[in-house]
Design goal:
The chain is of the alpha+beta class. The protein has a single domain, classed as GIY-YIG endonuclease (3-Layer(aba) Sandwich), CATH 3.40.1440. The chain has 4 helices and 3 strands. The chain has helices at 23-32, 37-40, 56-68, 71-81; strands spanning 3-9, 15-20, 46-53. A 3-stranded antiparallel β-sheet has the order 2-1-3, sandwiched between helices. The radius of gyration is 12 Å and the shape is globular.
Length: 89
């Protein structure tokens, strides 16, 4: 099973970090307003970064690390890894 840690860019320019086992479904939920409370009023959101893990615990640990980064550190990470234009299938 693949698990993802991801960063979204919200319509107001803010960044949201989370984890999921179905990236396509979770992105759709955020854009429907049924995802995280934080993103509900900041739609639409777009996926700008993700990492793939083989287990939930690793993804959650990475999410914790990413959430502790400052905004500019997240932007550097996104810029170094490149923006992902497609969601993995």
């Amino acid at each position: 099973m693949q698990v993802y840690t991801y960063i979204l860019e919200c319509a107001d320019g803010s960044l949201y970090t989370g984890w999921t086992n179905d990236l396509t479904q979770r992105l759709a939920a955020h854009n429907r307003g049924t995802g995280a409370k934080y993103t509900r009023g900041r739609r639409p959101v777009k996926l700008v970064y993700y990492e793939v893990f083989s287990d939930k615990r690793a993804a959650q640990q990475r999410e914790y690390v990413l959430k502790r980064l400052r905004r500019h550190q997240k932007l550097v990470l996104i810029a170094k890894r490149g923006l992902y234009q497609t969601v993995p299938s």
